[in-house]
UniProtKB/TrEMBL annotation:
One Pfam assignment: Sortase
Name the record gives this protein: Class F sortase
Annotated TM spans: 58-76
Organism in which the protein naturally occurs: Micromonospora parastrephiae
Bias-annotated ranges (Polar residues): 23-32
Region (Disordered): 22-50
Keyword field contains tRNA processing: no
Keyword Membrane found: yes
Top-level taxon: Bacteria
Gene3D superfamilies reported for this sequence: Sortase
Keywords attached to this entry: Hydrolase, Membrane, Transmembrane, Transmembrane helix
Length: 257
């Protein structure tokens, strides 16, 4: 299984850069002990009385009424399950689909997917001589390889695990990966004796020359997992199969081993 060398090299750099930014980034917060700054007004400009007394103006009342309407419509959505509000209007108002934990760094040791009866050891892989993500040797085709330049499973960002689809002697570790569907569970056991449980979001197939780097490697919004193998038609030579099969999954919980 080979991805495009140039694309993976760019992805590797992005993983390192974004991981560094995630560590050094900070969020500005308000100090509750600090008094608010006085409002600014143009020097010499007199303060004018509101036309409608001291109550809120019409624009404020209109905004308040709109917010009450939105909250009411969100309540209807919650009860009926029917989406009423436009996505742009309700962006940031609906809760995220699922909460998730964030785990400390810990290398993966094994992988289990009940749906396809898969249980396999996981070992570290790096970058191959041609700049692509290395894959397990043919002699270890029943094992998966975790890309050790990226996050470990459960940290923020996409942990990448690769494996062969087959060998000259028969099916390999990820032979049935394409059979996974949204909602299927993937369990990754780690060296700290915790199990990171992921849920499949989607299974995609991409031409190896057009792998969408940002989509596969660039999402650091939550802990996620990418399982990658070969797919499509056999073209032979250095390419092997024409496509990459990529499983996109998100961390939903963690438990002790």
């Amino acid at each position: 299984m080979r991805a495009s060398g140039r694309l993976v090299a760019r992805a590797s750099g992005r993983l390192r850069r974004v991981a560094g930014q995630a560590v050094s980034a900070s969020v500005a917060t308000t100090d509750p002990a600090t008094r608010p700054l006085p409002s600014k007004r143009t020097a010499g400009a007199p303060l004018t009385r509101r036309r409608f007394g001291t109550g809120p103006g019409l624009p404020v009342l209109a905004v308040a009424a709109l917010m009450v309407l939105i909250v009411a419509m969100l309540g209807v959505e919650q009860v009926t399950g029917v989406s009423i509000l436009p996505d742009r209007l309700s962006a940031g108002l609906r809760p995220p689909p699922k909460k998730f934990p964030v785990l400390p760094a810990s290398h993966p040791t094994s992988l289990a997917i009940e749906k396809i009866d898969l249980r396999a050891p996981v070992h570290d892989v790096g970058i191959a001589a041609d700049g692509t993500i290395a894959v397990p040797d043919a002699a270890r085709a029943q094992e998966a390889g975790w890309y050790d330049q990226g996050p470990t499973p459960g940290q923020y960002g996409p942990a990448v695990i690769v494996g062969h689809v087959d060998t000259t002697s028969g099916p390999a570790v990820f032979h049935q990966l394409r059979e996974l569907r949204s909602g299927d569970r993937i369990e990754v056991t780690r060296t700290d004796r915790s199990v990171a449980v992921f849920e499949v979001d989607s299974v995609e197939r991409f031409d190896k020359g057009r792998l969408p780097v940002d989509e596969v490697y660039g999402d650091f919004s939550r802990p996620s997992l990418r399982l990658i193998t070969c797919g499509g038609r056999w073209v032979g030579g250095e390419t092997g199969y024409s496509d990459n099969v990529v499983v996109f999954a998100s961390l939903v919980k963690a438990r002790p081993d």
